[in-house]
Amino acid sequence: MSSSKGAGAGARRRRTRCRKCKACLRSECGECHFCKDMKKFGGPGRMKQSCLQRQCTAPVLPHTAVCLVCGEAGKEDTVEGEEEKFNLSLMECTICNEIVHPGCLKMGRAEGVINNEIPNCWECPKCKREGKSMKDSGDGTGKRRSDNGEEGVRWKLTDEPAQNKKKLAPPTPLPQLSAEESQVQAGIHKRKKEKELPPLDTGPKKKLKGTREKHLKKASDQPPDGNKLQSMQTWSRTGSGDFEVKGTISHPSIHLNQITASDLEKPKVPSGPLEPSAQSDKSHQREKLERFKQMCQMLERVKNSSSSSSSSDSDSDTDSRGSDGSSGGVSSRAASPATRSQRLAALGFSASEEEEEEEEEEEEEEEEGGRRNGGSETARNGKQPKARGNSQEKENNHPARLQCRQGLRDVVAHGTQFLNWPLVPSPPKPLLQLERHVVRPPPDSPEPDSLPLDSGSDHIMQRDVWLAVFQYLSYRELCVCMRVCRTWSRW
DNA sequence: CCCAACGTGTTA
DNA sequence: TAACACGTTGGG
Ligand SMILES: [Zn+2]
Ligand SMILES: [Zn+2]
Ligand SMILES: [Zn+2]
Ligand SMILES: [Zn+2]
Hints:
Elements: H1 22-25, H2 33-37, H3 82-88, E1 91-93, E2 99-100, E3 113-115, E4 121-123, H4 125-130, H5 146-151, E5 243-246, H6 255-265, H7 282-302, H8 337-347, E6 349-350, E7 450-452, E8 458-462, H9 463-470, H10 475-484, H11 486-490
Helix pairs in contact: 6-7
The structure holds zinc ion (ZN) (4 copies).
It binds a DNA duplex through helix 5.
């Protein structure tokens, strides 16, 4: 209770969906594992996770999040400059989980590593100084459990086989961090409380867990290799204290790619036994394939007929750009890496300019005449699974699982905000050849102003009128509307 | 208040 | 380790 700085000290903020990305706007697929688990779809509803196809690509901090230093919420909206925005925004450290305003940090300009994969996410200067990486952080396993990530793998076709990894270990031999204020804040996560369940239980409670107190904690161990940064890359350009921006993820999220590539792109084995090397992926293959299948269906509908965007050239990146500036041969155009870097550099950050940057975006489903999918309150008639929930065992359950933190793409925006997050995962296109489109800028979405009708003409009411109407609807009703047609959904 | 879900503990 | 479960947080 006191104001202990401990990382997670009283602040166990869970991230929540942004509700803006495509995934968030979609409705349940009804076919994935989690959907099947939902009571809505006849499942027991025990998992309480969200549909795999609805996993948010840019989870945000809850509104209740506040700076551990000043106790205030994010105020980036109150200022103009990007730097100001940054300093007043809340940033959550992926290592210690502390949420602070960069501007409230005492160590003004240490090297903070901004994670542009997720909104308001970085590795705070404090942790960086200690040379911690996620691996050593509280959970020892470095990242989120493969669980969420794996199940919630987002479809991205990015990642390179090998090579790449441009800059690995920081050129800096590792500055002997002076222990000046080494306040070993062992904040980490707190175990919270343990639950105990009364011996009395008239219901089939499934698992029995409270065996007294059996929570054991893993002692902090020190792996041999102290500094072997994880796979993320970080640009250490800490000249005089700058922030670093790291991008690129190399987390467990490539499986799908592999599967896709293996099963679809390559002839591989006709019968499809399995690969000799794949052994533990077996179970996952199923899931992945399932997901892939769904995606394919989706894509079929989509069929993206948009004009091709010309932006799939430069692949080989010979990088070697030690210090920005010379943008070798970057295509000259708006958000080129160089531009990003410069922008960030202007703020005192360095940007990661991988060969991969821009995220490509999905095309959104095409409007088709029928919306057969029911999604929400359709199946809830006499269906009453015996499920015995604890608190909420109603009839609706939507679980989801993707946790965020990393695994998302990195993109730096260039508009009013310094980073552009509402990006979307890339759909595994049945076609081989991963191509990427530029992220669709959030500000100006080319949504139609009119509502096309089946008759061919447009509805008399225009978008703004509809929107005015929509604002009086409840969320639930809006969801229903969104299922009516694509245009409404987009609006 | 109700419902959706995040993140972690537990079990297989 | 992956899958399952669930308490509890978060949003409306
Ligand atoms: Zn689903
Ligand atoms: Zn989202
Ligand atoms: Zn603050
Ligand atoms: Zn930290």
